[in-house]
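Late entry, written up from scratch paper. The run itself happened at the end of the previous shift, but nothing got recorded in the book at the time, so transcribing now.
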Amino acid sequence: MTTQDLISLGLQEKEAELYMACIEHGPSKAKDIAKYTSLNRGTTYDLARSLMKKGLLSTTQKRNITHFVAMTPNKYIRQLDAETEAARALMPAIEALLKTGSYRPTIKFFEGSEGIKQVYEETLNCTGKEIVCMVSVQEILDAVGADFLNYYTKKRVRRHIHLRCLKDPSGEVDEYIAGYSSGTDALALREAYLGPEVIDIAGNFMIFDDTVALMSTKRENFGVLLHSHEFAVMFRHIFNSLWLSCVPTD
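Output as recorded:
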């Protein structure tokens, strides 16, 4: 994959160079990106802000210093209102490049309803083909809307990704609104259980591969991706313990 390929998707040449640098070098400070690309630091910040608006970059903090992190282009493609054949062809190459660097635990923060939706989109890049989650359906319905949840479920099914889900009993809503009826679980590649009454779930958390995804309620309105093998293992153990103690929903 080259910068010219990215330009063909609508990026400016300097945007493509910056994005490519972040893919190749991993989370990077502005001064390092400037060195990789021969851009000045002022231009680097301007281009980084532009790419963040397009959903192609995020930030993480290391020792109180901002590092820019390359994201998969899901949100950008959605903003273009089409997943073109060219974009789909580039996805495996981008994901492969993102995985070539040495392993680094990272935290990525996303603001607003669109940020929460982007966290959902990132879960669809899981390679293990299973996502486990604990969710208040009502809270997430309020945060992103029924249309997006239905869109997400259809896209997950197309990618053959299974979902195991524990639902907050106090967050249940009309099944026809939420699309979470037991009658559709098999078609949706979903196995849903009611969580224990003592657990109060706000929003949603999902675990896939070595990543924990957190989506807040509409009140706090943010999402987080925590890429850490140790935390993913810990949260998955907690989930599985609760899962084994629950009964299927009717």
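The first helix runs from residue 3 to 7.
(Scratch paper discarded after transcription.)
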